[in-house]
Amino acid sequence: MQPVLLKPGIHWVGAVDFNLRNFHHYSRSPEGSTYNAYLIQDDKTVLVDTVSHHYFDELVTHISALVEPQKIDYIICNHLEQDHAGVLPRIVELCKPEKIFCSTMGLKSISRQFNTEGWPVVAVKDGERLNIGKRNITFLETRMLHWPDSMVSYVEEDRVLFSNDAFGQNVATSRRFVDEYERPLLLRAMKDYYNNIVLPYSPMVLKTLDRVVQLGIPIDIIAPDHGLIFRTPDDIKFVLDSYRAFAEQKPKLRAVVAYESMWGATESMAFAVGDGLDDEGVPYVLIDMQHNHVSAVMNELADSGALILGSATRNNMPMVNIAALMAHVKGLKPQNLVGASFGAHGWSGEAPRMMAEELASMKVDVVGEPVRAHFGAKAEELAACRELGATVARALKEKVKAFA
Ligand code: FEO
Question: Any alpha helices (H) in 249-350, and if so which ranges?
Fold first, then answer.
């Protein structure tokens, strides 16, 4: 792989992780990922972000194809999570930069993460401008999008926005630009990334998008730190519009039924719930949590407006994969969902009620009574599940109408 030209004097110098399947140890990345870093060559040579600790050699090789690493004057750290700063100590040692820029919040955390003794760290304020010769770089804080230290860097003369985690996708390909990739695959990767990482910060996303509009910043290129780069007006409009839609979280007419069965009774109830959704014309997806990762559910929720949970009761509780799913979903704070619960049991049967309470604590509109089946689900319990699916479908239609 070679450095890739974005604009004269601006190159991608990052690394592609084709085999990454476990992104940050909480989300699956079936298409791999990339750690994008960028080099700006002006009177000052500037490295924008670095890469995860496995990819030091690739970063140095790409930089070296353009300039001796020791010629780097400035390093910009838009965000100090390990995937963008994991090699920072080695890069600082190699390049001996004149200055390392981070946000004011980054200044608070950089010395906690690294031994920064002797490092020339400079905190930049929101809106501060840095002249590097013929170019000026403006730093814009994007606190909690998705860390307190997060910021983006904008090169005014080239109209390039280095957006760090914002607008990223877990995609690994030898291509670097969105217009070299299939849009449906890109959209799916964007939704997966957004819903599993950025979702809780949606209010910040909307605020940031409004700010970009207010500032009237012209943008030729959006260069995120993960995945493909947006360089055509159509693709830039696409990603900005998509992010607004993701952040608004308007409910869609589709349901996710996530379940975990022990001996098959809860699964048969899930099928019946699906039939009820179908009766009302609402499409759905069934996800067996014994065969799917929690991040797959959040991915599907991006196109849905209902989350229905089913679990057998084991030791007076929901099964462990459903419990893990509820923890994952709760932390991501999805909005505007309708929900319900069901499940089979042998003895006590607490799981359906516990799941309904957990959904309610996530501000999901829980409809219908939790449906329980004692041992195998008989005809009347399956009928109750079918009615539960139909009840969710009707409530979802009303909700979708309210947001239209
Ligand atoms: Fe928050 Fe890509 O790191």
Answer: 265-279, 294-301, 320-332
What values do phi and psi take at 380, rounded to 5? -70, -35
Is 255-396 in the same CATH topology as 4-248?
no
Q: Domain 255-396 falls in which CATH fold? A: Rossmann fold (3.40.50)
Does the domain at 4-248 match CATH 3.40.1390.20? Answer given as: no
**Pocket lining: 17 vs ligand 1, CB cutoff 6 Å:** no
Global pTM value: 0.94
**Interior/surface letters 74-95, b for 16+ CB within 10 angstroms, e for the rest:** bbbbbbbbebbbbbbbebbebb
Domain range list for the chain: 4-248, 255-396
Which atom of ligand 1 is found nearest the CA of 226?
2
Residue tagged active-site, from 165, 192, 225, 358 = 165
From ligand 1's centre to the CA of 84, what distance in Å?
7
Active site annotation includes 284: no
One pLDDT digit (tens) per residue for the chain, 404 residues = 899 999 999 999 999 999 999 999 888 898 999 999 999 999 999 999 999 999 999 999 999 999 999 999 999 999 999 999 999 999 999 999 999 999 999 999 999 999 999 999 999 999 999 999 999 999 999 999 899 999 999 999 999 999 999 999 999 999 999 999 999 999 999 999 999 999 999 999 999 999 888 888 999 999 999 999 999 999 999 999 999 999 999 999 999 999 999 999 999 999 999 999 999 999 999 999 999 999 999 999 999 999 999 999 999 999 999 999 999 999 999 999 999 999 999 999 999 999 999 999 999 999 999 999 999 899 999 999 999 999 999 999 999 999 99
CA-to-CA separations, 379 to 63, 373, 374, 385, in angstroms, rounded? 67, 10, 12, 10
